[in-house]
Amino acid sequence: MSKEKKVDDLLEQCDSTKSYELRAGKMLDLKSLESKLSSIGEIKASTPQVLLIKSGEGSISIYKSGKILIKDIKKEDGEKIAKKIMEMIK
Questions:
Q1: How far apart are the first and last CA of the chain?
Q2: Helices 30-37/75-89 angle, 10° precision
Q3: pLDDT tens-digit profile of 38-87?
Q4: Domain range list for the chain
Q5: HSE toward the beta carbon, residue 17, CA cutoff 13 A
Q6: Domain spanning 9-89: which superfamily?
Q7: Model-level pTM?
């Protein structure tokens, strides 16, 4: 039996870019997720490879590979956003 990891355990801090990284663990179809993810913030750019979202003072980059970068957002807020994103991409 595998345990589902908590989002805050999956969130890795990257000091050099003042961001947090999260991995979805699967490839993402960004086009199909775009409307769901727009509830997190304003979609600034959308391509088949990356979705860029402006959220408050920070930004979120979601890659087709499943990599998610949450930049310039406090850790507590980043954890909340990460939980929302992970729920949306299940």
A1: 19
A2: 130
A3: 999 999 999 999 999 998 889 999 999 999 999 988 878 888 888 898 89
A4: 9-89
A5: 13
A6: TATA-Binding Protein (3.30.310.10)
A7: 0.81
